[in-house]
Amino acid sequence: LRSQKVHKPDQEEFALDYVVRFMAGGLVVSAFAILGDMLRPKSFAGLFGAAPSVALATLSLAIVENGSAFAAVEGRSMVTWRIRPFNFLLHCLSNVDAFSDFRCRSDGISAGYLDACGVWSQTNHYWIGRDR
Amino acid sequence: VIVSVKLSALKEGRWYEHGMRVGLGGLTTVVAGLIGDFWGPVEGGLFLALPVILCASATLVEAHERREKCERGLVGHRRGTDAAALEAAGAAIGSLGLASFALAVWLLAPNIGIASLGIGAVVWLLVAVTCWRLRRLAGRPYFCARPRRSDVSTQVN
Description:
Oligomer: heterodimer
Largest sheet of chain B: none
Largest sheet of chain A: none
Number of strands of chain A: 1
Strand content of chain B: under 5%
Structural class of chain A: mainly alpha
Strand content of chain A: under 5%
Helix content of chain B: over 70%
Structural class of chain B: mainly alpha
Radius of gyration of chain B: 19 Å
Order of helices and strands of chain A: HEHHHHH
Distance between the termini of chain A: 12 Å
Distance between the termini of chain B: 32 Å
Radius of gyration of chain A: 18 Å
Shape of chain B: globular
Number of strands of chain B: 1
């Protein structure tokens, strides 16, 4: 997997590529977020919080630039990340507890979120390390 | 439970909130791309599953709900945190759909290329909605708001 050939653009192409990435990612994330805002009930709208927004933007560019095999490896890596440790589920469970338990306004949200991110990154780090 | 679309929710958003979402989404995509370019697709793929929409939405949902209650002269904090919690619970269910999306891309991309993303998106929607519906049918949801004595006293006062 590590010997996978990656397209190496020159400097100008590189900068343009990342501007396109920024725009594509921003628009897709924003579109899903707006859709989530409009939908009721809230638990259903939450489904769009886990929409493959960044994945859609990045994988479509990856297929165009580096080919389908590259995107397939990225997809496999996503599956590993998602399914094996149920990482995001843990992340959200932490969030739910945090949201319900904190009593101070947005500070509670931020603290709960940071806590959940800590769980997420630690578990992620553990499983990546285990793979090697 | 009937799923509905509330178009008036579009007016509740402020311009900087949309800007923040575009910025956060764009930045995450750029970071995921940089990691993929420099360290390869294995590490790059890990960051494609980042819950960026939930990150961008949770605090905004809490603020919207609180603001709405405040405009009616109520405290609204409890409602805000409960709405954010419900959104997170929905996202937890949606993450199963995201795993299905990744699985579809992994299996189909080598054969059908970019069309695998479209099929993956359909699979994501089907799995996420099915799981959400099953959870509703299963009865009392796990993520159930617990009434608090302080809330009751706040509402009464």
